[in-house]
Amino acid sequence: MGTSLVKALPNFAIAILVLFLTWIIARYTTRIADAVTGRTQLRSSLRALVETLVKLTIWVIGIMVAATIILPGLEPGGLIAGLGIGTLAIGFAFQDIFENFLAGVLIMLRDKMEIGDAIEVEGIVGVVEHITLRETHIRQFTGELTVCPNSMLFKNPVKIMTEQPIRRWEITVGVAYDTDLDHAAEVMRRAIGDMEDFAADQPLDIYVKEFGASSVDFMIRWWSGSMPRDMFAVRDDIFRRIKRALDDADIEIPFPYITHTFKEPIPLAAPRKGGDAS
């Protein structure tokens, strides 16, 4: 065994050299692939996928060459067959890992979700910062970083809020029941109709929505930037303008009223013994 080990040392040294060369080749090949894909119109997620596949392919070839050097009797066909059986066994043992891996590949191939998009999935709302073959990093709007397994994004519905540059938003404004609704709608339209934040090619809608508990509710719908911060800024301006306009027009924005109705008279006071009942 000692003699065989000594004889195998040169092979081990050559195999280590092959792995070292593989590391160098993979490193520079990845840079070349990054430079080539950077000149194209590929999305950042697809460029990351190409770089990962190039690196993975070079490492698989390098490991196979090193294995055949250490074990001269090992043929490439047998090694590939062994890899197939081993991959099947590992697949059952690490099913979740391979599921996330395949989901990551499919997510990177999607053309509807990119790095920088604002998304919502399973109650997580934020901006996609990074996509790997196993997980996706989502920076929530509150600042926290959430690392999501790719299988969660692949299996569940994902709302991509920034797939289009603009989207429709809406708010509800209530007025008193004794208000002329046509007049109220006209006052609100004049108050916000000239806002520059609205998309010029989309309509501004003001509809009577419902009879509320204390008010007649209007639904105001507009189109503006798709990021949530755009909505907050525009909505703040809308509320301020509408409140000022309704106050100037003496239109009440009511607060909840409670009306008590009694079907039978209630005695004012109980009669006293030996005294005046009044």
From TrEMBL:
> What's a Pfam family in this record?
MS_channel_2nd
Q: Which UniProt keywords apply?
A: Cell inner membrane, Cell membrane, Ion channel, Ion transport, Membrane, Transmembrane, Transmembrane helix, Transport
User: Which positions fall inside the Mechanosensitive ion channel MscS C-terminal domain?
Assistant: 170-253
Question: Superkingdom of the source?
Answer: Bacteria
Q: Where are the transmembrane segments?
A: 12-29, 49-71, 77-98
Q: Name one GO molecular function term.
A: mechanosensitive monoatomic ion channel activity
Q: Which InterPro entries match?
A: LSM_dom_sf (IPR010920), MS_channel_C (IPR049278), MSC_TM_helix (IPR008910), MscS_archaea/bacteria_type (IPR045275), MscS_beta-dom_sf (IPR023408), MscS_channel_2nd (IPR006685), MscS_channel_C_sf (IPR011066), MscS_channel_TM-2 (IPR011014)
Q: Where primarily located?
A: membrane
Q: Cite the Mechanosensitive ion channel MscS domain residue spans from the record.
A: 96-158
Which SUPFAM superfamilies did the record assign? Mechanosensitive channel protein MscS (YggB), C-terminal domain, Mechanosensitive channel protein MscS (YggB), transmembrane region, Sm-like ribonucleoproteins
Instruction: Look up and give the membrane topology term.
Output: Multi-pass membrane protein
* Cellular localisation: Cell inner membrane; Cell membrane
- GO CC term, one of those recorded: plasma membrane
| Annotated family | Belongs to the MscS (TC 1.A.23) family.
Q: How does it assemble?
A: Homoheptamer.
As for what it does, the entry says: Mechanosensitive channel that participates in the regulation of osmotic pressure changes within the cell, opening in response to stretch forces in the membrane lipid bilayer, without the need for other proteins. Contributes to normal resistance to hypoosmotic shock. Forms an ion channel of 1.0 nanosiemens conductance with a slight preference for anions.
Official protein name in the record? Small-conductance mechanosensitive channel
Q: Tell me what organism the protein belongs to.
A: Croceicoccus ponticola
